[in-house]
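Quick one from the shared queue. A colleague (R.T.) flagged Beta-lactamase enzyme family protein as missing a structural entry in our internal table.

Convert sequence to structure tokens.
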Amino acid sequence: MSRWGGRVGSVAVTLVAALLVEAETAHAAPDPRSTSAPAQAAADVVADVPVAPASPAGAALAAFGPTGVLTVAVRPVVPVSAPGTTADAVARTSAGSWSAGDIDRPVPTASLVKLYLAEGVLTAARASGSAVSPADLARIEATLTTSDDLAASELWVAHDGPALLADVVARYGLRGTTPPAPDPGAWGRSLTTASDLARFLVLLPLQAHPDDAALITGLLARAAPVGADGFDQSFGLLGPGRTADTAVKQGWMCCVDDVRHLHSAGVVDDEVVVLLAEFPVDVDWPTARAALDAAAQALRR
């Protein structure tokens, strides 16, 4: 999980040094509320059901409390054998969809961009008729299981991360996902929305090659208890009460624009669930974790 946003340096030593500084910063200080600009209003193929107080998303929002800002998106998984176009298949999820918060507001991805990065690398290799190198496969595994920032930075540089992300955006019809600016190397500062993440995860088994989709979800199901940087990954959808059938990517990032980010997104049982949380500077990591854990547990009731 990217604590600082995966800033890419010219040499590996610079990357490692930057990550160490980021880890210290993240454990030391919390961060203020995001001031990200609202996304352009655009209807998604996935219809969003208004939040009712008794809805799962509404319950998660209530359990999260006033410590920060939470966005929730819940979608049923579409069967791989769904007939018709992918748009038709995704539209079928509207009956079982729930949302809370502004799901179209772009927020920094932190390490959730690694989902897009992994799919992009795998798909680009198939499009070119070449095999993914063993080194890149190892990097993809590291980014999705231990959220290794150095591995993500190496993939981002080697495969032109901004161009790769733009290709994923086009193929999946994402509306609020953009590469990092002004620094194209700071991959964790790429922006995305809860709506886009939910759409990507719903479409993954339909849009990606079956072997690639299976690889990604299989690695997410093997998320390590502790990240490569020592950060405890057992929060949110991987927190207390998690089910055995859980394939999730975690994200954390501290102090970018004075905001603490804590994200949890993936497939839990037969649902795609996205939880994106932001906290002000006086909220520490334990408090942030507790709020996101409470939200995730409320979804399971």
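The longest helix spans residues 12-28.
The chain has ten helices and seven strands.
Added to the table.
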